[in-house]
Amino acid sequence: MWSPPLGQALAEIERHVADEGWDQPPRLYALAATDELAEREPELADQLGLDPDSSTPGQLTPVEQELPDRSLEDLLATITWPPTVVGCAVAVERIVLPPGTEDAMPSELTEAARWAAGHPDRSEVRLVVGVLRDGTRSSVLRVRGHDDDTDLVRDPEMAPDLADALEATLAE
Fold first, then answer.
1. What is the pTM of this model?
2. What is residue 123's DSSP assignment?
């Protein structure tokens, strides 16, 4: 299921992360309904520059979370969100290799990561994946070196395993 408000929030997150350049650790965001956030937390809404009168219905506001120094997989397995959080998103950087190269990849994880990082045909990407409590999913991807907003690839099912892990954090 495609959601324009979720897609817009993910593109906003990608732009925010892009402002700080590449080679960043994962970043996690709570997604709040903008109108409810502005009503419930007027000072925060003011700090974020939110105008509740001009927000469109369904608009989402990403709120970045501080992350402890743990792997993303371990962290997501321990997170639960309060009911006021209508969704969540994560921004990660990954190395993508062409099809067929995985046969030559070393089996040990550290060695495989080093091998992939040095592969001449690799692409570095920033992926932002988000899910809502109703099961709606979306993702945006930017390939390093393609910095125009029109270069964002949008797809609701680009990283299903990551979306599943995010969705599990929203379970009540």
1. 0.85
2. E
